[in-house]
C-alpha cells in the first residue's frame, strides 16, 4: 500500500516527524518498506510562463524564450522541443541552486544572453522524464515557488502489509491505526450523498448471492468526460502509484485509495436490459480493459448484461463497456464480493489488479454506501452530471457477521509474560473499535465490520500487544530451576534393546519355541525341559530352554543360501521344568559367523572372533549404566578355551563364547560360530546416574607394564588397579599384550 504522507495528514496529523511516523507504523505491524521524496532539494525555482518564443539566430535547435515570472520578463535560451508560447514551466532564475549543486548564472549561449534556465523534471529530481521541459498546469499561479505550487515537500510511503490486514489498504485504514496509536480522533471528510436529480435507474439482478451478497448501482447522466481531474487528485494518485487516466476512472481509483472500496464505472449507453451478477456460461469470452481476450470458465463470477459478460467481478472490466471520450452517462458499480470468489478467479486468469488485491484480502462489508456517496460527490464536482437513485441488492444471510469474543486477563498475561493494567487494555480495545464490555475475568468484544481478521482470543492478544508496544514489554532473561531428577523409569524399554541390537548390525530372527531333545541335551544337559506330548515332529519334541539352538539352525540355513556374513539376534521366551513346575522368562541371544566386514578391494576382510561378540555384550550392558565382566568357564557345546560366563554386579546373567569345533563340523559349517545368551531382566535394570563437576585439573596418563602369569585374566588386573587407585581412576584400558622371548615363565 503506497500513499502520500500529506494525504494521510489531512485525516490525522500527529506531532511526529516522517521518520517517527514510519517507526510507529512498523512497530504496530504495518511495516514501512520504502520512503520516497517527491523531489530533490533545490531553491529559487518558480512557475514561469513563456510569453514569447523566437528561433535562435545562430543555432537551429535552440530557441530564445521570453519568460514571465509574475513580476518581470527574462530572456532564456532553451533547447527543449516542447517549448512554446503560453506554456507554464519550471523556471530557475539566476542564483537558483539545482539538486546537483549547480548554481544558475547569467551566461551567453551562442552569442545570446540567457538569464536563467527552463528545467526538465529530471533536472529537478522530480522524475526521470528528460524529454523536454516540465509542463505545468495552467491552474498554478505564475511566479509561485515551484516546490510549494506542486507540493513537492510531500513523502510517498510504501507499506508491506501482511495478508490479514486488508483493512489497511486505504488512507482511511492507515489513519485509523495512527489514531489508535496516538490516542487522537480522525478528521474524516464529511460526505453527503449528492441530491438525486434524475429518476433514471438501471435494473440489477444478483443470481450468485453467496459470492456477491451486496451490490449497489447508480446512474449518473450528463457527465462531461472532457474535464480534467484536479491537480491535487492527480498528485495523490501518482504518489500512491497510480497514473491519471480520465476523470471518471481517476475518481474511482481515488475512492479506492481513500476508503479501500473498489468501484467500476460502465458506459451506460453500452449496457442492455439489466445488470446481472452471475457465473460465466460455457463458451463465453471477454476482452478486458488491458486488451487481453480470455475464455471464461463456469466457476468465474462475472458482471453481465443482455449482451453477455461486461467484467470479471472484482478483478477487471471489459473493454467494450468502459468509459470513453464520447461517454455522456455512466453506471457506477460498488459491490461486496466474497474474498474466496475473487481469489480463485484472479489466480485462474493470472490477472492481479488493485481491486482484486483488496477483495482477496477482504473489504469492509459496511463500506459500500459511503464509497458510493463519496464517488458520486467527486464525479458531480469534477465532470458534472445528474445522479439517479441508488439501486441496492443485498442478501443478509450471506453477509459477514460480527463476532463476539472474550479476552481473559489471565490468558493475556500468560501469553505476553507481563501484566497490563485493566484500564489500559480496555482503552486499547475501545480505540480499536472493538466495543469492549467488562465481564468476569476479562472483556467481551464485538468485532467491527472492517476487522474481519479477528477470529480467536489470540488475535485480541496480538492487537493489545502491538498497540501497547512490543518495545514496552520489559525484556527478561529466561530463568528456571532445573533440578536433576530421576527419569521416573525403573529400567530400559525392551523395544530400546531391540533397537540397540539393530544399531549394532544384527538382524532379528524369530525361531520355533520347540526344538529336538538332541539339541536341548547338547546345550542344556543339566536343565529339565518340558516334553511335548503330541509333537508335530521329532525336531520339535521339547520346549526350548535356550535360544541358541534355534539361532544355530538359522545360521546353517542362511549359509546354505550363500550368506558370507551372519549377525542375528532373538528376543524371546525360554521354558524350564515340567508341567507341574514350569517357569518361563525372556532371554536375549545373538550369533555371529563369517566375515567381519563386506568384501572390499582396499583391504582383506577378517572373520569375526570372540572379542567382537564380547564387545557387543559390553555395549548392551553399558546402556543401563553397568559394566559387564567375564570369567572363563567350561560350557556344554562351547569351545573349552573360548567360553565365559557374563557377570553383572557379581551375578551370572548369561554366557558368551565360540561353539565347539566338533559341533560346528557336525553341522557342516566352515569357520567359527560365536554366540551369547543373557537373561533379559538384568539387562533392563537401569543404574541411577550420578553427575559430578568436571575436574578443573588436567588428566594424567600412566602406561604401566606388568609381568603376570598367562593364566591371570586382564579383569583381575583391572580390579586390583581400581582397588588400589580408588576414585581417582577415570579410565582403564588394556592396549597391548606381549608374550614370548624374554618372558618365558614366571613363578
TrEMBL record:
**Domain TRNA-binding: residue ranges:** 39-147
Give residue ranges for domain B5: 400-475
Listed InterPro entries = aa-tRNA-synth_II/BPL/LPL, B3/B4_tRNA-bd, DNA-bd_dom_put_sf, Fdx_antiC-bd, Fdx_antiC-bd_sf, NA-bd_OB-fold, Phe-tRNA-ligase_IIc_bsu, Phe-tRNA-ligase_IIc_bsu_bact
Q: Which UniProt keywords apply?
A: Aminoacyl-tRNA synthetase, ATP-binding, Cytoplasm, Ligase, Magnesium, Metal-binding, Nucleotide-binding, Protein biosynthesis, RNA-binding, tRNA-binding
Q: What is its EC number?
A: 6.1.1.20
Q: Reply yes or no: does the keyword Oxidoreductase apply.
A: no
Molecular function as annotated in GO: ATP binding; magnesium ion binding; phenylalanine-tRNA ligase activity; tRNA binding
Question: What catalytic activity is recorded?
Answer: tRNA(Phe) + L-phenylalanine + ATP = L-phenylalanyl-tRNA(Phe) + AMP + diphosphate + H(+)
State the Gene Ontology BP annotations: phenylalanyl-tRNA aminoacylation
Alphabetized SUPFAM superfamilies for the sequence: Anticodon-binding domain of PheRS, Class II aaRS and biotin synthetases, Nucleic acid-binding proteins, PheT/TilS domain, Putative DNA-binding domain
SMART domains, sorted: B3_4, B5, FDX-ACB
Location of the protein in the cell: Cytoplasm
Query: Which residues are in the FDX-ACB domain?
Result: 695-747
Cofactor(s) recorded in Swiss-Prot or TrEMBL: Mg(2+)
GO CC, alphabetical? phenylalanine-tRNA ligase complex
Q: How does it assemble?
A: Tetramer of two alpha and two beta subunits.
Q: Give the record's family classification.
A: Belongs to the phenylalanyl-tRNA synthetase beta subunit family. Type 1 subfamily.
Q: Which HAMAP family match?
A: Phe_tRNA_synth_beta1 (MF_00283)
PANTHER family, from UniProt? PHENYLALANINE--TRNA LIGASE BETA SUBUNIT, PHENYLALANYL-TRNA SYNTHETASE BETA CHAIN AND LEUCINE-RICH REPEAT-CONTAINING PROTEIN 47
Protein name per the record: Phenylalanine--tRNA ligase beta subunit
- The protein's organism comes out as marine metagenome
Amino acid at each position: 500500500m503506497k500513499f502520500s504522507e500529506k494525504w494521510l495528514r489531512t485525516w490525522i496529523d500527529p506531532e511526529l516527524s516522517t521518520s517517527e511516523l514510519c517507526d510507529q507504523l512498523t512497530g504496530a505491524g504495518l511495516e514501512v518498506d520504502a520512503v520516497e521524496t517527491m523531489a530533490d532539494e533545490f531553491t529559487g525555482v518558480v512557475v514561469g510562463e513563456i510569453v514569447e518564443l523566437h528561433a535562435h539566430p545562430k543555432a537551429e535547435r535552440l530557441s530564445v524564450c521570453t519568460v514571465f515570472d509574475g513580476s518581470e520578463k527574462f530572456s532564456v535560451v532553451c533547447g527543449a522541443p516542447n517549448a512554446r508560447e503560453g506554456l507554464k514551466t519550471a523556471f530557475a532564475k539566476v542564483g537558483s541552486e539545482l539538486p546537483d549543486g549547480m548554481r544558475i548564472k547569467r551566461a551567453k549561449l551562442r552569442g545570446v544572453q540567457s538569464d536563467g534556465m527552463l528545467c526538465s523534471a529530471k533536472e529537478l529530481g522530480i522524475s526521470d522524464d528528460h524529454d523536454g521541459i516540465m509542463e505545468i498546469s495552467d491552474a498554478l499561479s505564475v511566479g509561485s515557488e515551484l516546490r510549494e505550487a506542486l507540493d513537492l515537500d510531500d513523502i510517498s510511503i510504501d507499506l508491506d502489509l501482511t495478508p490479514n490486514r486488508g483493512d489497511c489498504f486505504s488512507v482511511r485504514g492507515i489513519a485509523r491505526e495512527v489514531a489508535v496509536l496516538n490516542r487522537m480522533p480522525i478528521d474524516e471528510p464529511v460526505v453527503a450523498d449528492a441530491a438525486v436529480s434524475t429518476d433514471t435507474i438501471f435494473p440489477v439482478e444478483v443470481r450468485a448471492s453467496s459470492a456477491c451478497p451486496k451490490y449497489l448501482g447508480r446512474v449518473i447522466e450528463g457527465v462531461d468526460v472532457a474535464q480534467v481531474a484536479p491537480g491535487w487528485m492527480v498528485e495523490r494518485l501518482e504518489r500512491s502509484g497510480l497514473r491519471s487516466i480520465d476523470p471518471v476512472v481517476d475518481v474511482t481509483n481515488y475512492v479506492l485509495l481513500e476508503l479501500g472500496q473498489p468501484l467500476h464505472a460502465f458506459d451506460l449507453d453500452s449496457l442492455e436490459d439489466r445488470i446481472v451478477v452471475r457465473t460465466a456460461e460455457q463458451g463465453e469470452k471477454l476482452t478486458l480493459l488491458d486488451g487481453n481476450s480470455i475464455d471464461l470458465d463456469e466457476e468465474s463470477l462475472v458482471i453481465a448484461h443482455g449482451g453477455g459478460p461486461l467484467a470479471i467481478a472484482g478483478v477487471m472490466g471489459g473493454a467494450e463497456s468502459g468509459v470513453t471520450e464520447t461517454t455522456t452517462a455512466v453506471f457506477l458499480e460498488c459491490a461486496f464480493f466474497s474474498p474466496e470468489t475473487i481469489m480463485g478467479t484472479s489466480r485462474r486468469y493470472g490477472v492481479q489488479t488493485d481491486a482484486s488485491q483488496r477483495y482477496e484480502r477482504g473489504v469492509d462489508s459496511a463500506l459500500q454506501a459511503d464509497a458510493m456517496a463519496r464517488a458520486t460527490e467527486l464525479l458531480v464536482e469534477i465532470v458534472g452530471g445528474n445522479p439517479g437513485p441508488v439501486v441496492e441488492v443485498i442478501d443478509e444471510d450471506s453477509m459477514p457477521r460480527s463476532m463476539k469474543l472474550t479476552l481473559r486477563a489471565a490468558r493475556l498475561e500468560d501469553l505476553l509474560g507481563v501484566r497490563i493494567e485493566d484500564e489500559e487494555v480496555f482503552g486499547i480495545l475501545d480505540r480499536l473499535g472493538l466495543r469492549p464490555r467488562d465481564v468476569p475475568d476479562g472483556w467481551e468484544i464485538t468485532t467491527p465490520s472492517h476487522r474481519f481478521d479477528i477470529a480467536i482470543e489470540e488475535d485480541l492478544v496480538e492487537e493489545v500487544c502491538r498497540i501497547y508496544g512490543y518495545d514496552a514489554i520489559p525484556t527478561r532473561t529466561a530463568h528456571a530451576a532445573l533440578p536433576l531428577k530421576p527419569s521416573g523409569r525403573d529400567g530400559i524399554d525392551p523395544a530400546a534393546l531391540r533397537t540397540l541390537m539393530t544399531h549394532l548390525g544384527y538382524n532379528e530372527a524369530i525361531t520355533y519355541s520347540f526344538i529336538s531333545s538332541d539339541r536341548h541335551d547338547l546345550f542344556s544337559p543339566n536343565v529339565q525341559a518340558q516334553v511335548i506330548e503330541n509333537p508335530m515332529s521329532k525336531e520339535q519334541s521339547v520346549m526350548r530352554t535356550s535360544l541358541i539352538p534355534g539361532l544355530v539352525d538359522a545360521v546353517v540355513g542362511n549359509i546354505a543360501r550363500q550368506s558370507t556374513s551372519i549377525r542375528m539376534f532373538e528376543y524371546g521366551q525360554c521354558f524350564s521344568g515340567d508341567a507341574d513346575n514350569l517357569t518361563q522368562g525372556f532371554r536375549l541371544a545373538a550369533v555371529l559367523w563369517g566375515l567381519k566386514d563386506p568384501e572390499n578391494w582396499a583391504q582383506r576382510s577378517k572373520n569375526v572372533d570372540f572379542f567382537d561378540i564380547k564387545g557387543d555384550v559390553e555395549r548392551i550392558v553399558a546402556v543401563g549404566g553397568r559394566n559387564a565382566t567375564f570369567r572363563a568357564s567350561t560350557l556344554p557345546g562351547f569351545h573349552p578355551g573360548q567360553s565365559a560366563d557374563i557377570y553383572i554386579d557379581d551375578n551370572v546373567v548369561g554366557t558368551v563364547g565360540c561353539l565347539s569345533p566338533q559341533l560346528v563340523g557336525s553341522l557342516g559349517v566352515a569357520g567359527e560360530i560365536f554366540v551369547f545368551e543373557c537373561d533379559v531382566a538384568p539387562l533392563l535394570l537401569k543404574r541411577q546416574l550420578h553427575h559430578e563437576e568436571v575436574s578443573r585439573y588436567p588428566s594424567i596418563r600412566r602406561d604401566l607394564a606388568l609381568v603376570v602369569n598367562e593364566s591371570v585374566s586382564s579383569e583381575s588386573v583391572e580390579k586390583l588397579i581400581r582397588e588400589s587407585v580408588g576414585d581417582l581412576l577415570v579410565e582403564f584400558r588394556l592396549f597391548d599384550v606381549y608374550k614370548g622371548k624374554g618372558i618365558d615363565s614366571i613363578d
